[in-house]
Amino acid sequence: MDKQTGSLSITNTKSTDSGVYHIKISSRNKVSYKKFRVTVWLDTVKVRAGDSVTLNTGMTELEEDSKILWTHGDHETCIAKINRATNKTSLYRGNDVRFRDRLQLDHQTGSLSIWNISITHSDVYKLQISSRTRSKCKRFVLIVNENTVSVTEGDRAELNTDVSELHRDSLILWMFGPRDRLIAKADLENRKISTYDGVGGRFRDRLQLDLQTGSLSITSTTNTDSGLYKLKIISSRETRYKRFRVTVCEDREREIHPEDTVESTQREKTEEIPLLKIYSGTSV
């Protein structure tokens, strides 16, 4: 409690802290009362890596004197805030690359959007809304899962965009590996598709790009195709992202053990040697 103002702060709020709080201020001249309704929510939000997510305040419009504060993590680091009284909006400008140029704050509702989500965005996000008439606290548990594709060596891997139809001016970029090397590109406006062999020609003649959906197919997969694939779709309306973790497993049924090969070779040689001797002796 603030000794100067009498304001009360509740840290590390839980859902059990929800309820009505009353304050009574007595002085020589008067007695004043005030009450606050505090609501604490804990929502779980699950998304796929590469997608975008909006953490909704549940409000259609903020009050004129509302203050919004968005924080994340155990240390409740501030990533976005709004002060309606001063008409000022602030977004994270720190060194954490996870949030750089990925945040959008709705000035009307206070909802927070995060673009191009990655696994590292999985965390607890806290919303605080305060005004003259209300105080609201809400927590979101954000869980980000990767799109995983697992195939047997030699089979076909399908990386689906889940888009039924792309915009006419869309530019599709598929990238692979830690350095985001471009392996396929489609320019829908000019109806042009380009595929790249990759380092060492690993993808040569094995990539197929669907012009309608942007989905990528990898044929005759090998274990060197395992890794992280990133998709970026750019159009005049929006930019979309998606990530896939591809794992190519060995086909155990086709596997030939080295010891089996050695035994087979030795057996063949053993059978051939007597025949050679017989024919040699016969000739003499």
Automatic annotation (TrEMBL):
What is this protein called in UniProt?
Answer: Uncharacterized protein LOC113094866
Question: Which stretches make up the Immunoglobulin domain?
Answer: 42-145, 146-249
Gene3D superfamilies the record matches = 2.60.40.2710, Immunoglobulins
Q: Which InterPro entries match?
A: Ig-like_dom_sf, Ig-like_fold, Ig_sub
Entry's SMART domains? Answer: IG (SM00409)
